Predict the 3D structure of the following.
Amino acid sequence: MRDRPSGFTNPWFQLGFGVVCVLVYELLQKRGASETANLSEVWSWTGITALVSPLVWLAMALMIISLVSWLYVLRYIPLSIAFPLSRAVDVLIPLSCWAILGENISSRRWCGIALVVIGLMLTAKPVAQLEEKL
Amino acid sequence: MSWPVFFLIPIALMAFVAGQLFLKHAMESSAAKGFRDAQVISFLGCGIFSMTIHFFVTLGLLGHLDLSYVYPFQGLSVIIISLAAAVVLREKLNLRLTLGALFISVGIVLVSLS
């Protein structure tokens, strides 16, 4: 990892910012795609019909922002560290679907969420130790 | 569950993994060569093209399935990308990082199977 800027341009901050952007765009994408799923029996599987939804366009704008943020992160942090950490979103999405979209979380799903959290801690610990030394 | 799900989910996954590797390689190269270099531009283009395929295939899947079902399949990409980064990009991958990636992948698959 090369020398990193601080504040808003800090790559670790950008990693967290990108996770929030992905979380919001996935929720918008789901809602927009669901609203437009029945417009065409064949074409709806391609995702093209979802483009009539403004929520999908908003999701795409957030996706571009998260992509720019992610590219910035990749310039400073190895992919084998940054990518697993960015999957914090995989815990946040089921929790958000449960809280906002009213989807169920089974006991097996809770176990999966716990495993993801353990994995994130395993990945983040050496990074935190490295940051302390710097 | 219909046939497009089994066909489209692996396509979305492969496009995502390839996209991440292309983008990382482009950003690594850009640090030394800048963004006007032809190789950097071509890797960026390939990365964005792969991610675009992933985006539209995922949109198609989301129209018919729950987000909390479709999205976690990308969990497999964690361990695949970690290993690919070590092999293709020659990043250092120690036991702790490998275990971390494995836990995250298994956790996300468990979430997706629920």
About this structure: The radius of gyration of chain B is 16 Å. Residues 3-113 of chain B form one domain. The helical segments of chain B are 3-33, 38-62, 67-70, 76-87, 95-113.
